[in-house]
Amino acid sequence: MTQIAAIIGGGVIGGGWAARFLLNGWDVRVFDPDPQAQRKINEVLKNARRSLPGLYEAPLPTEGQISFHDEISLAVQGATWIQESVPEQLDLKQKIYVSLQEHCSKLAIIGSSTSGFKPSELQQGARRPEQIMVCHPFNPVYLLPLIEVVPSKKSDLKIVERAENLLRTLGMYPLRVRKEIDAHIADRFLEAVWREALWLIKDGVATTEEIDNAIRYGFGIRWAQMGLIETYRVAGGEAGMRHFMAQFGPALKWPWTKLMDVPEFTDELVDMISDQSDEQSGMHSIRELERIRDNNLVGMIRALKAQDWGAGALLKVHDRLLNEKAAMAFTIDSLDLTAPIETVRRAVPLDWTDYNGHMNEARYLQAFGDATDRFMEIVGCDADYIQSGGSYFTAETHIRHVDEVHAGQLIRVETFCIEGAGKKMHLFHQMFEGDRMIASGEHMLIHVSLKTRKASVPASHIVAALEKVVEAHALMPRPDGVGRMVGKK
Amino acid sequence: MTQIAAIIGGGVIGGGWAARFLLNGWDVRVFDPDPQAQRKINEVLKNARRSLPGLYEAPLPTEGQISFHDEISLAVQGATWIQESVPEQLDLKQKIYVSLQEHCSKLAIIGSSTSGFKPSELQQGARRPEQIMVCHPFNPVYLLPLIEVVPSKKSDLKIVERAENLLRTLGMYPLRVRKEIDAHIADRFLEAVWREALWLIKDGVATTEEIDNAIRYGFGIRWAQMGLIETYRVAGGEAGMRHFMAQFGPALKWPWTKLMDVPEFTDELVDMISDQSDEQSGMHSIRELERIRDNNLVGMIRALKAQDWGAGALLKVHDRLLNEKAAMAFTIDSLDLTAPIETVRRAVPLDWTDYNGHMNEARYLQAFGDATDRFMEIVGCDADYIQSGGSYFTAETHIRHVDEVHAGQLIRVETFCIEGAGKKMHLFHQMFEGDRMIASGEHMLIHVSLKTRKASVPASHIVAALEKVVEAHALMPRPDGVGRMVGKK
Predict the structure, then answer these.
(1) Which tens digits make up the pLDDT trace of B232-259?
(2) Which of A216, A399, A453 faces B404 most closely, judged by CB atoms?
(3) CB–CB of B257/A195 below 8 Å?
(4) Beta carbons of B69 and B75 less than 8 angstroms apart
(5) In chain B, pLDDT over 70 holds for what percent of residues?
(6) If you compute the radius of gyration of chain A from its CA atoms, what whole number of angstroms results?
(7) Exposed/middle/buried for residue A487 (C-beta within 10 Å: 0-12, 13-18, 19+)
(8) DSSP state of B458
(9) Per-residue pLDDT averaged across B16-20, rounded?
(10) Do A397 and B486 touch (CB under 8 A)?
(11) Quick check: helix, strand or coil at residue B480?
């Protein structure tokens, strides 16, 4: 049954949560008295639809239904997850919990997006404090995986564990905070940097743009993949973390930072910062900046995915989960061999398009390469087999680009096996967007020994599986386009 | 004439500087009394050679010569740039300046890698304080572009400007710090986060791994592309930076962080942190972690390059500079048309390899696509022309994979134009590594109107240029492999 998420408060953060749930197949009910809420959430959804699906190699589930409600009771009844993202006023949050707990299930997860309050503060005055916890996300919620999950001593740990498991099915990373503390973990770091930045701007040491450049051209890129400690471990070199601390430790006594001392938040300081920010970024609207940001994040997270590291490694795990859910048939025995085999079903990622505004030609071959990998897996040439020293290398490829396709569109590849005997495997892939055939790829692959890098005969289970597919596919008419050469029919 | 950089102190940072200079064609002279210096620098160089060249689409200049010297005088004589990266002891640094200024040119740039000291402190006791400045890099120096350039009031601004221009030719980003201050800019932020992290670990709120995850799964990825302020500008939404500050400003008065209060640096705390770090990262050696880090950085910086943003935008500028230096002939008139045209010369980037350990099949097509783009540029279908509404789309491709190639190897593509008349352009690319022909790509392209997305006749200057190339190339024998189809000669 489709699960329901209630979104209480529909700004940028609530909208981001709504997008995460919806695009992962949940139904979403929004409660927000702001007459602009629907417009705001739709804008976040638009950004999410353009960037999230293409992060994955697997297709996301069918999108859920979103509805908007004037009564909090209608939003929370039957909801598995209730996410509160209203302004940071403790009494407002507490009032909302009182009101929604009259109508929601005792088993529902009530998560707060608060960046500052502790769960024990949120729980005060609540009818059932045990189901309330902090689930603090990071903007854009539809792309960044981190959720700080903070229970208090009153929290029901079974509900907390259920929340963490559900977050993983949404592709998120629940970081359980061991002890409740103001601002949890990440925002304490952000607050520290923000305070120091205010001083630097106020004292004329650096402008807003210089501060941003000092971050993004240096340690910011490092922190996207290893955090503070692992980076320092590497910096310590062969002598390791202990050596690093021996070097850096005493520096802590130096009066470098001004951090507890807070500059007066005067009109002059606010003007200075917002004027500098206008000069730095004012050439782009906020919408443009959001899209630029999302393009960058998608590209970088996918780059990390190729390395199976950091946020990219999380994404890989979620991809595997989605693949299982999509119930794609992996084994030769469970497949219908009387038709071409579906080997790819995915959205075109943002980073696959080029200056012509469409999917770049090399990405067609990338998708066909993925189709070949999936087909290899089906006939038994999987990761374990490759580990044991055998694989197929592509010797020759012919691609026809029949039609264009754009970021976000769903493509699928159907694979026809023309020949598969001895060292050879001859495949013909057709790529579709909806009913449109947009490209074909014909490939000759040669089985090789990864030790000698020379052609070799595959293992017997692969020979047998290929034979079975070739026999079945030989009964179908050959697809149009097989055996073409460039420039001639 | 080849320029000379003197590297005073050859640890991880000095080695990173050596690599930047060497791989950008400078000769490097190292002075470091440590008997391990040569080994340490060679290890950094190995990492740099594997990761830096492939960042670019253009080839780097021929690598310079490195030499090791027992006398500081021999290292600094004739050097344009002298970079000091010795341990953070002010008196040691000051003594070194006195000693090297006896032998170096008055015009030489003397940069210090210090992360803490102010230039006015470094200059005390120096014979010519005006040529000493802070040039503070970030590890790994061969990949991260940021250099904090800090002059004092005594600094000669002409020397400072020359330093900044030279840094740009090395692909680095000089950030001029307006007023000298302890720890410059970035390290003040790092120090703030480090202090807060020590408290969180000490108080049992988070482990080292949890702290790293709180950074890299959330704001770390954001900061790799937009810094602190631009990120908050976006978070403020349509109302912008002023609105964000109105919301967030008062939070500064809350007692969130413990930052000026420094935990006792006891043996227990050092043990706790290094034990946690071992548990988190101990399964990888430091060398492995360095390579993982470099793979990640290369992938992410190249992803940003595709978006022309942040560190990727800097890289694009440097690429253009390198292309001009490599003196690649861009115009039809300056080209030798009696031979195939060189359209690509580049190193294979780290992120182009796959689970088989060699360049992935799709990247062959990407390189051939780049070759096609370069050829289009040569015949006048350049960025301006595409902007005006015409372009070529690939209709059909045939690739023969003849041999493997690995990350870091230099590949080049030679392009032969078979046909170029009416709407058609028929190209044959051959890819080489050294003398090895490793692949061929045959492509039929169709000229299109970007408005109608339909085939159309190109502008007359393109027609004329193509005619000229085709006529010249028709006098050469056709390369072996033209007109092949998959599986048949």
Answers:
(1) 888 877 677 777 777 665 555 454 555 5
(2) A453
(3) yes
(4) yes
(5) 94
(6) 27
(7) middle
(8) P
(9) 97
(10) yes
(11) coil
**Other C-beta atoms within 10 Å of A367: how many?**
25
Task: Give the integer Cα–Cα distance in Å for B329 and A217.
Answer: 32
Q: Minimal Cα–Cα distance from B129 to chain A, Å?
A: 22
Q: Is the dihedral of CA B468, B470, B475, B479 positive or negative?
A: positive
Q: Are residues B136 and B101 in the same domain?
A: yes
Query: Are A356 and B208 in contact (CB < 8 Å)?
Result: no
Q: Which residue, B352, B42, B269, B93, is CA-closest to A369? A: B352
What pLDDT sits at residue A58? 81
Q: How many CB pairs under 8 A join A and B?
A: 530
The Cα angle at residue A369 between residues A367 and A372, in degrees rounded to 5: 115
Q: Does B467 lie in the same domain as B410?
A: yes
ipTM: 0.88
pLDDT value at position A318? 87
Instruction: Please report the DSSP string for B163-215 in residue order.
Output: HHHHHHHTT-EEEE-SS--TTTTHHHHHHHHHHHHHHHHHTTS--HHHHHHHI
Nearest-5° Cα angle at A328, A324 to A334? 115
In angstroms, what separates the C-alpha of A100 from chain B's closest C-alpha? 26
> Strands, DSSP E only, in B367-435?
390-401, 410-421, 424-433
The CATH code of the domain that includes B468 is 3.10.129.10
User: Rounded distance, CA A212 to CA B232, Å?
Assistant: 11
Return phi, psi of residue B485, to 5°. Answer: -120, 160
The C-alpha atoms of residue B218 and residue B211 are separated, in whole angstroms, by 11
Number of domains in chain A: 3
pLDDT more than 90, % of chain B: 65
**Dihedral in degrees, nearest 10, Cα atoms A38, A43, A44, A48:** 130
pLDDT of residue A394: 92
Are A441 and A368 in contact by the 8 Å Cβ rule? The answer is yes
Residue A413 shares a structural domain with residue A460 = yes
Give the closest of B234, B257, B302 to A303, CB-based: B302
Q: B375 and B241: one domain?
A: no
Residue B92 has pLDDT above 90, yes or no: yes
Interchain proximity B196–A196, CB inside 8 Å = no
Tokens in use for A118? 């502790």
Average pLDDT over residues B424-444: 96
CB contact under 8 A, A138 and B219: yes
Indicate the helix (H) or strand (E) that contains A76. Answer: helix A72-76
Band of residue B118 on the pLDDT scale cut at 50, 70, 90: very high
- Say whether B69 sits in a helix, a strand or coil: strand
Listed in sequence order, the DSSP H helices in B282-326 are 286-306, 310-325
Same domain, A163 and A221: no
pLDDT at B251: 55
B361, B213: one domain: no
DSSP string computed for B347-382 = EPPGGGB-TTSSB-HHHHHHHHHHHHHHHHHHTT--
Predicted local confidence at residue A266, as pLDDT:
74
What's the domain range around A259? 193-283
pLDDT for residue A434: 93
pLDDT < 70 regions, chain A:
238, 247-265, 325-330, 488-489
- pLDDT score at A271: 81
pLDDT band (50, 70, 90) for residue B207: very high
Same structural domain for residues B342 and B364? yes
Classify residue B309: in a domain, yes or no.
no
Q: Which residues contact A133 (CB under 8 A, 6 or more apart)?
A: A109, A110, A111, A112, A119, A149, A150, A151, A152, A155, A159, A160, A163
